[in-house]
Amino acid sequence: MSFSTNPADLLLAHRLADAAGDAIRPLFRARFAVEHKVDASPVTEADRAAEAAMRAILDAERPDDGVIGEEYGEKPGRSGRRWVLDPIDGTQSFVAGRPIFGTLIALLEGDRPVLGVVDQPIARERWSAAAGRPTELNGAGVAARTGRGLTQALLASTSPRFFGAADLKGFARIERASRQATVFGGDCYNYALLASGHLDLVVEAGLKLHDFAALVPVVEGAGGAMADWNGRPLHAGSDGRVIAAGSRALLDEAVALLRSG
């Protein structure tokens, strides 16, 4: 099934990112309390303020659309469309004063992501894409790097600690096949860098819908490919094991290794 998006949706997504950035910037490298959720992941005043700012706009302008947010859960809708919000993907980097986190905004039609924004509010870098439109960084087109096999691929992942024992073995096979040093840390920023042609492969596990929904249009709109560890398209029910690659050929090569154990 093919999708197309209303240009007004992308304009709205940019306004959501503006509102989130306005909430985040005053708190970056400032003094604030850090709490920890049940899963031990950190959450800050900035996470909550940014999501609240985005939800206020959606409540006013798209009341029939559903909303799924990392901090405030799900609001059911009636339109068959859902906005997926991660106000700060990479909260640990935010807490550490490292500007490699991002605000993630996605729009789902049914269960499929059709629009995505990755916004780095400190560096003011914003990647955006939508079905039928190529990926842009601050309004200029970008393209993923193609033509690299696994042995030449620059691989990134947030942290090995997010892999279970079996998944870590699969990731280790990818690492051994690549002759480049793996880049750790970065969360959503890695996928944006892949879309801009600086990284070739990102392999992760344990992601939730709000972690990956916005990344799919951004990577694919730049000519890259994203899938689960079985090579299947990502959707709202995916298990959180994610691969992004500069090309479909590289993704298929990585999937074959992950499934070879």
Description of the molecule:
With 261 residues, the protein is of the alpha+beta class. Helix content is 32%, strand content 26%. The protein folds into two domains: 7-141, 2-Layer Sandwich (Fructose-1,6-Bisphosphatase, Chain A, domain 1), CATH 3.30.540.10; 150-258, D-Maltodextrin-Binding Protein, domain 2 (3-Layer(aba) Sandwich), CATH 3.40.190.80. The chain has eight helices and 15 strands. The strands form three sheets. An eight-stranded mixed beta sheet has the order 4-3-5-6-7-8-9-10, sandwiched between helices. A five-stranded mixed beta sheet has the order 12-11-13-15-14, with helices on both faces. It has a two-stranded antiparallel sheet with strand order 1-2. A hairpin with a 2-residue loop joins strand 9 and strand 10 (140-141). Helix 1 packs antiparallel against helix 2.
Please summarize the sheet with the most strands: 8 strands, mixed
- Looking at CATH, the homologous superfamily of the largest domain is Fructose-1,6-Bisphosphatase, subunit A, domain 1
Low-confidence parts: none
Structural class: alpha+beta
Report the top-level CATH class of the largest domain: Alpha Beta
Main-sheet strand order equals 4-3-5-6-7-8-9-10
Estimated radius of gyration? 17 Å
> What is the number of helices?
8
> Would you identify the CATH architecture of the largest domain?
2-Layer Sandwich
The H/E string reads: HEEHEEEHEEEEEEHEHEHHEEH
